[in-house]
């Protein structure tokens, strides 16, 4: 992963999201040790304090747990927590955008719901 | 543990007060960026910390001692800038050899590897090097000395972009292996902000802010929309920067004290929100005149 440095997303957030993706894809499994702040600092060329902030974000959300003196390890429910969080955030944001845009364009609620149904049917048709 | 502690530090040259009542402290093993415009007092401050000069009033302490004329401090501190005086009669290898005598933690293997990596010739002399090569040679000394307090004053002067990148990476890697307190002054905050933990911004010899880079990046927010919408939002707020584009589009930078709900409401109202880079924030915070260079060209 290459860090995005244009400022639209804080570096520590990108670090925590990268670690989440590593956990989701199975590269780091339950009860395995995640990278230390120093390893992350070396990998991404950032100050170790920034990397620590990314790790602490995951600890706060119980995606990883701390073992004193040993480092951070992947929690049992890590993947579940990440998935739930991403659904809640990403989908919610898309819905908000959809509603905002449709209000600006003067599209009615019924029309939107109909569009979603149509799109869903299309996807189902493709699956068959 | 605090490595540097300044209390009401003031430095005058004749009648000119270059540093005014400066108080701050720097914790052990942090990389701090000292940022400020030309003439803000960066070098003066660093020389006081290094013990090269004496404060006019107030105090500076390094490792809990006054650094001026202090052997313990000069052994544990290195100050790298582009005016370093090195013996003219020695070639580069001999210079490194001579410098190594002064620093107990000197890593000669690292010095040798960096020397070869940057393609120096052992028989070259320091005074015959180009500006960028001189700076590069100086940072080899700064890194290999491994001093508990390492000060770089504009270390990248004259270096090309590739060597600057190499230097930042080398500094980070060596810092990870051998943590120490580093103070780095630079104009190029955008290049070094990921390397830094804290930023100390000074303006006209006074402290403007001292905080972590992450906090600095969240400090301000850019808003752009139609002028009337913007005016409503920024009423009573301190506007750091303002620019008008086209007929009635306005871009402003204000302190980011909006709640999550306010931010959502703004973007729902068609206001474009954008992050402001740490470098831009520092430029806005140290501007002496609002409006900036454009005012020079405005003839009314």
From TrEMBL, chain A:
Residues 9-77 form the HTH gntR-type domain. PROSITE patterns: HTH_GNTR (PS50949). GO terms for molecular function: DNA binding; DNA-binding transcription factor activity. It holds the Pfam family GntR. Keywords: DNA-binding, Transcription, Transcription regulation. PANTHER family: GNTR-FAMILY TRANSCRIPTIONAL REGULATOR, HTH-TYPE TRANSCRIPTIONAL REPRESSOR YTRA. This is GntR family transcriptional regulator. It comes from Anaerobacillus arseniciselenatis.
UniProtKB/TrEMBL annotation, chain B:
Keywords: ATP-binding, Nucleotide-binding, Transport. Residues 4-229 form the ABC transporter domain. SMART domains: AAA (SM00382). One of its GO terms (molecular function) is ATP hydrolysis activity. InterPro entries: AAA+_ATPase, ABC_transporter-like_ATP-bd, ABC_Transporter_VariousFunc, P-loop_NTPase. SUPFAM superfamilies: P-loop containing nucleoside triphosphate hydrolases. It comes from the Bacteria. Gene3D superfamilies: P-loop containing nucleotide triphosphate hydrolases (3.40.50.300). This is ABC transporter. It comes from Anaerobacillus arseniciselenatis.
């Amino acid at each position: 992963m290459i860090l995005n440095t244009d400022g639209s997303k804080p570096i520590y957030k990108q670090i925590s999201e990268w670690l989440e993706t590593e956990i989701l894809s199975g590269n780091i499994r339950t009860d395995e040790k995640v990278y230390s702040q120093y390893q992350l600092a070396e990998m991404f060329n950032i100050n170790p304090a920034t990397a620590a902030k990314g790790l602490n974000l995951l600890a706060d959300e119980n995606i990883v747990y701390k073992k004193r003196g040993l480092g951070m390890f992947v929690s049992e429910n890590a993947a579940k927590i990440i998935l739930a969080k991403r659904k809640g955030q990403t989908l919610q944001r898309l819905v908000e955008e959809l509603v905002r845009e449709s209000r600006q364009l003067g599209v009615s609620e019924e029309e939107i719901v109909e569009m979603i149904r149509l799109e869903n049917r299309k996807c189902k048709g493709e699956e068959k | 543990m605090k490595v540097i502690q300044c209390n009401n530090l003031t430095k005058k040259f004749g009648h000119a007060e270059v540093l005014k009542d400066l108080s701050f402290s720097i914790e052990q093993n942090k990389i701090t960026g000292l940022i400020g415009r030309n003439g803000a007092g960066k070098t003066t401050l660093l020389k006081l910390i290094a013990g090269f000069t004496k404060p006019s009033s107030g105090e500076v302490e390094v490792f809990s001692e006054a650094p001026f004329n202090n052997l313990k401090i000069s052994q544990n501190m290195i100050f790298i800038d582009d005016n370093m005086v090195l013996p003219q009669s020695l070639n580069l290898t001999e210079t490194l050899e001579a410098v190594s005598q002064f620093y107990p933690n000197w890593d000669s293997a690292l010095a040798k590897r960096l020397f070869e990596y940057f393609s120096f010739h052992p028989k070259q002399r320091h005074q015959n090097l180009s500006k960028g090569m001189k700076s590069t040679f100086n940072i080899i000394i700064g890194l290999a000395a491994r001093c508990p307090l390492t000060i770089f004053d504009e270390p990248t002067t004259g270096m090309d972009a590739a060597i600057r990148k190499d230097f930042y990476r080398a500094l980070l890697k060596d810092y990870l292996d051998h943590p120490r307190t580093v103070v780095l002054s630079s104009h190029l905050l955008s290049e070094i902000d990921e390397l830094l933990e804290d930023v100390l911004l000074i303006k006209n010899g006074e402290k403007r802010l001292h905080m972590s880079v992450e906090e600095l990046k969240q400090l301000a927010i850019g808003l752009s929309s139609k002028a009337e919408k913007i005016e409503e939002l920024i009423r009573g707020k301190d506007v750091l920067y303002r620019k008008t584009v086209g007929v009635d589009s306005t871009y402003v930078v204000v302190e980011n004290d909006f709640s999550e709900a306010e931010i959502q409401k703004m973007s729902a109202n068609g206001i474009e929100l954008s992050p402001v880079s740490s470098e831009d924030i520092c430029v806005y915070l140290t501007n002496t005149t609002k409006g900036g260079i454009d005012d020079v060209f405005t003839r009314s």
